[in-house]
Amino acid sequence: MSKGRLEAFSDGVIAILITIMVLELKIPLGTQWEALRPLLPVFLTYLLSYVFLGIYWNNHHHMLHATDQVNGKTLWANLHLLFWLSLIPLVTGWMGQNDFAPLPTAVYGVVLLLAAMGYLILQTAIIAQQGTHSKLRRAVGKDLKGKISVVLYVVAILLAFVDRWISIGLYVFVALMWLVPDRRIESIVRE
Amino acid sequence: MSKGRLEAFSDGVIAILITIMVLELKIPLGTQWEALRPLLPVFLTYLLSYVFLGIYWNNHHHMLHATDQVNGKTLWANLHLLFWLSLIPLVTGWMGQNDFAPLPTAVYGVVLLLAAMGYLILQTAIIAQQGTHSKLRRAVGKDLKGKISVVLYVVAILLAFVDRWISIGLYVFVALMWLVPDRRIESIVRE
Amino acid sequence: MSKGRLEAFSDGVIAILITIMVLELKIPLGTQWEALRPLLPVFLTYLLSYVFLGIYWNNHHHMLHATDQVNGKTLWANLHLLFWLSLIPLVTGWMGQNDFAPLPTAVYGVVLLLAAMGYLILQTAIIAQQGTHSKLRRAVGKDLKGKISVVLYVVAILLAFVDRWISIGLYVFVALMWLVPDRRIESIVRE
Amino acid sequence: MSKGRLEAFSDGVIAILITIMVLELKIPLGTQWEALRPLLPVFLTYLLSYVFLGIYWNNHHHMLHATDQVNGKTLWANLHLLFWLSLIPLVTGWMGQNDFAPLPTAVYGVVLLLAAMGYLILQTAIIAQQGTHSKLRRAVGKDLKGKISVVLYVVAILLAFVDRWISIGLYVFVALMWLVPDRRIESIVRE
Predict the structure, then answer these.
(1) Between B80 and B186, whose confidence is greater?
(2) C-beta separation of A175 from A52 below 8 A
(3) Phi, psi at residue B69, to the nearest 5°?
(4) pLDDT digit string (tens) for A86-133?
(5) How far is B92 from chain A (nearest CA, A)?
(6) Cα–Cα distance between A171 and A50 in angstroms, integer?
(7) 3-state secondary structure of D171
(8) Hey, of C61, C65, C184, which one would you mutate to test binding to chain B, going by the most B CBs within 10 A of its CB?
(9) Disulfide: which of A80, B35, D32, D156 matches D170 by Cβ 3.0-4.6 Å?
């Protein structure tokens, strides 16, 4: 089967998730500067989640670029990834509207962790289908960034109950790690 | 006419339906564990409906893979299927927010039944257009899974007023039946 | 310019409009049969608007099938059509939630009329671009159905203040006129 | 990398943003003419923002028509543009529901300004990738319209606190400037 519809469907879902998050940015009550203040934490979490969804879209784009065919397993692995991504607007809203309280901050990390695992499963499914000469396996390499992200998510989830700002800092760090062009970060990480 | 836009349009509608359901997962009030508890039934119904929509997308993908051309009848048969699918977020929300009460649980099954029939009609329309050497007819075979699903939906709808948990169990069973790779289940079913 | 993105964008907008209307179908309060009763008029208007949007998508599909190139004017004519279509969820909700009161019923017709004119403008823009040997002009012919629809919309808008059920009847008639396969109706109309 | 998915994703996001704005047009309370009156400012701001998003989609379409390949930088420049566009429904609703109060009117301009800059950054990224023989650079020329728009946005933001109607007038002027066919306006501007 060709990968065209899997790409189109994933594009659609991620595009909608990004824009659904905007619906959580409620129109401010009042027309003064103070009316904007309660929007700030919600806006910042929106920005963070926007970047995460952007990273997923970007990486998904790259991963499928190195893929020629898809099968039933790949389709379900992809739907599994999209399921966890679909919860991002919910946990973004919960965290943003509660000033980064410990539990919502931890749950935000849990969803990021599960999405990261979903991505890993999809990657593994594609590599398995491609067989021994897998283009994707060579492109991914040891996937150090992926493994570090998972560790950082786990640390962030646990630390949310100690000091949530460390958790937020770790989420931002993971996002930045993926934003920076790929090869550089990987060579830095290897050192 | 080419099938490209029919695929793109269906992808769009199903992608939106999946993400619209997330909007029913209201942001929890409070930041403690108890705040998450009322979300549980809504979350589980979301998961179930997500799997059903995923199955429809998956099967739709396969069905159109075995299709070359579409005509006016196919377009309307497709819109008919999408109509019933579009009601899934509504009945999902109704069932989830009312702890699987009998009537919402039955109505959920009615929408699943009508969607299954819509799928069957679309399948029949494509086979009719393809004529005697229909690729799709050979692929579908006797469509045992399709027929069993319809019977199970009818049973589940009726039993919702006796014991709703049987109905829920049947819905889950149908979903699992389609999730499991196609050929295996069919050979099991034939025995 | 190629028509691919115009098609994809229109597919996206119409797919979203169809599913946004479902959001107006509020989850029933209560779990008894009576809880479903207030949903009935909203459901019926949803069905009617779904069919209208389906017709537009279908005809748009056919029209662009007979089109090879698009230019700036076509893009804006298309955005103009989509603007009026985008108001359909709003007027559908207004009419459905007010038991087909005269003004909402008339305004519903006004939006349908403006959408029909938007479609005509788009059609004219494409024919103008195609020049004297326009494929689309031959396909459209005298466009009797288009002209009759406009007349019926105007009549329905005016009669909404006399007897709204006549208006509703006319809207349903126009929808059925377009649902029935094209050539037959046209030959009937010509007699 | 091919540009197909970048186009499809952008189409999806812009299509959803346009239709999400319709959700701010709340269904009127009551069925008389007066019920429609409070909708008027919201409707007019919807129309204005619809035109702006239409212009962005149209220009995005043209820009990518003159582009063959995309790279990681282009993908992120595109996501950056879409981020600011995604805030348009929010500021549209804020301005429309507060009768064009000074602060919301200024913030509306700020988002338009940031979107314009996002567009410029994307344009620069594509030109940089295309190198010295950039098709896009020749097509864009000195980009007088782009520069004038930025100046007008800044003026409009500042004047919102003096007389907001001047700001609104400037926003409408910028929209019209882009709506009118390209070459004419540019030659007028050069005189």
Answers:
(1) B80
(2) yes
(3) -120, 155
(4) 999 999 999 998 989 999 999 999 999 999 999 999 999 998 888 877
(5) 16
(6) 13
(7) helix
(8) C61
(9) D156
